[in-house]
Amino acid sequence: MNFVKKALGVGVVLSTGLTVACGADEPASSAGTGDPSGLVVEVSMTDMAYEPSSFAFEVGQTVTFRFRNDGQVAHEAYIDDETGQEAHGTSMTGMEGHDMGEEGLVVVQPGEVRELTHTFDDEGDLILGCHQPGHYEADMKAVITVG
């Protein structure tokens, strides 16, 4: 699996409703959000996918992900690198559907909308992953490129 693939052009929706394109060569911008410290990105969760499936942000940028579960089962969103995703997946065994207050994690029930705010402190690639039973293994993940 190639976790370092680059975003080719992903639409993100800012909290003002303005849509901008962001990609590996065009990091998301907080311009127009009314809040210079953050960007709000709308993310749809469906049964086995995030939409959009890739993101690009700048080091130091604070982003609020607004997750909307358009699927039929609970999904989670967890932000970390590949090693952290593996460790989190192991710790979630038997804890499906529970938000244990872990930093960088939100569980979203069908029809719910929940937010997760994250500041990207370091350059590199991260993964947004769902560790509900079988979801991560079915490739329910998105690539986050920080540069």
In brief, what are we looking at here?
The chain is mostly beta strands. The protein contains 1 helix and 11 strands.
3D architecture notes:
Strand 1 and strand 2 (19-22) form a beta hairpin. The longest helix is centred in the middle third of the chain and has 10 residues, at 82-91. This protein is globular. The protein has one domain (10-146): Cupredoxins -  blue copper proteins (Immunoglobulin-like, Sandwich). Residues 1-36 have low confidence and may be disordered. The chain is mainly β and 147 residues long. The protein has 1 helix and 11 strands; from the N terminus they run E-E-E-E-E-E-E-H-E-E-E-E. It has a 5-stranded mixed sheet, with helices on one face. It is 7% helix and 41% strand.
What is the assigned CATH homologous superfamily?
Answer: Cupredoxins -  blue copper proteins
Helix residue percentage: under 10%
Major sheet characteristics:
5 strands, mixed
CATH architecture: Sandwich
Question: What is the number of independent domains?
Answer: 1
N- to C-terminal separation?
Answer: 21 Å
Looking across the biggest beta sheet, what order are the strands in?
A: 5-11-10-7-8
Report the radius of gyration as a whole number of Å. Answer: 14 Å
> Beta-sheet strand percentage?
35-45%
Number of strands: 11
Query: What CATH first level would be assigned?
Result: Mainly Beta
